[in-house]
Input
Amino acid sequence: MTVYSKIVGTGSYLPERVVTNRELEKSVDTTDAWIRERTGICERRIAAEDEYTLDLAEKASRRALEAANLDADEIDLIVVATTTADQIFPSTACLLQSRLRIKGCPAFDVQAVCTGFVYALGVADKFIATGAAKKALVVGAETFSRIIDWTDRNTCVLFGDGSGAVILEASDTPGVMSTHLHADGDYADYLHVPQGVSNAHAEVAAGRAYVEMNGSGVFRMAVTTLCRIADETLRHNKIDKQELDWLVPHQANIRIITATAKKLDLPMDRVIVTVDKHGNTSAASIPLALDEGVRSGKIRRGDLLMIEGFGGGFTWGSALIRY
Ligand code: ACO
Output
């Protein structure tokens, strides 16, 4: 019998502090009108100084566990998608495991930047499909504000902090119907933080500890790639785009989202949009949008969803999900 993974609970968390476009006007040469028109972003949340990715991940996870009506110790796999881990090691997933007082199950991080959650979901889905796990906690959590140069108007207006989580459970009906994961490392320089650990001393990377981006290059690639992966997902499942109830896209730029929706012939009231209020929260953006869609009553049991994302690497991915 085929085993599927099914989403049985969602949760999310946003830091309290709201930073509006108007506030950014005071620190960089930008305007509220430019940011709204080019990105659709009105405001974003920024973590408090003493608030870390792990704190955000824990809050979203507890909410997802509550929604699934599960105790933490029933979880037998933890996968956290993050680019902004609190420590080099242990992984955020291991730290989260300890916070939630879960013992013994595998726990690891996945790093695929803005596609991170789709990758994490794809990995957890395969654990469940092979019988290696029965109840998985899959989290996207970021404090992206910590890798942003707040004097660089090209990047600082785009990003925010937040977290989202889902609980996946083994089921004999779908569930996650397919996941599609891709990468092309030749585009590394389009969107990157040059300084890491191993090269921190090297002249080429030292001091470049913030996001650097070729904005228009990323934009063009994101639009064409996301349209292509939407096609790939539909074709793989032999379904027509008319059958989709919801698109839950990565939230980077309203113009990228609109282009993908158009490709799928989906009216915007069938697309979950949070980019206006959250900005781009990288790996957290899809589970945040999913949780908002579920809790607002828009997404209902039985609905057919497509999630899709594109990010640094480049990486990109999608999933078709019967909610
Ligand atoms: N305020 C005012 N002007 C700005 C700002 C700003 N915050 N940022 C850039 N500009 C200026 C630039 O300096 C440039 O000026 P110039 O023409 O005098 O050189 C001009 O605006 C840039 O114009 P465009 O490149 O035409 O702007 P575009 O319409 O491409 O919008 C943006 C720029 C918003 C960055 C867009 O390219 C984009 O969203 N790219 C995708 C980036 C992204 O989403 N990255 C996140 C990770 S990947 C992902 O999640 C999909």
User: Anything to note?
Assistant: The pocket of acetyl coenzyme *A is lined by residues 30, 34-35, 38-39, 114, 153-154, 157-158, 191, 213, 215-216, 218-219, 222, 250, 252-253, 256, 280, 310-311 (CB under 6 Å). The radius of gyration is 18 Å.
